[in-house]
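Data deposition worksheet. Section B asks for the primary sequence of the deposited chain exactly as it was used as input, without tags or linkers unless they were present during the calculation. Section C holds the resulting structure in token form. Section D is free text for depositor observations; keep each observation to a single sentence. Incomplete worksheets are returned to the depositor.
Section A, Depositor: J.P.
Section B:
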Amino acid sequence: MIICLPTDEGNIDPLLSEKLEKAKYLIFVEESGVVNKCISLRKKDDILFSITGNKAEVVITGNLSAENFDFLRASGIKVYAGVFGITAREALGRFKRGELREPKEEVSGVIKGRIV
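Section C:
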């Protein structure tokens, strides 16, 4: 399973980006924690293409736009939004332990990937 972690630095140790659309890098890792690829995002329009083109099955992020949430879900990608204040490595650990929840249309203060 390929997991996408948006960050502001090019490795798995910095904090997750608070907003998917403002991430500077996308880190693609296997569920085991092995980093497959790190992509520098020069154009923000490349985010969705990079995620789908690298066959990510899961995205773990802070906030994301409703349009991008809908697009990723329609593409068959699971989105775990509302993950703040932890490193990409810790987010991966929480995912593996089953501590993250995939938001539906509206779940406990998260609507389509946005914290309300």
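Section D:
The chain has a mean pLDDT of 88.
The first helix runs from residue 46 to 53.
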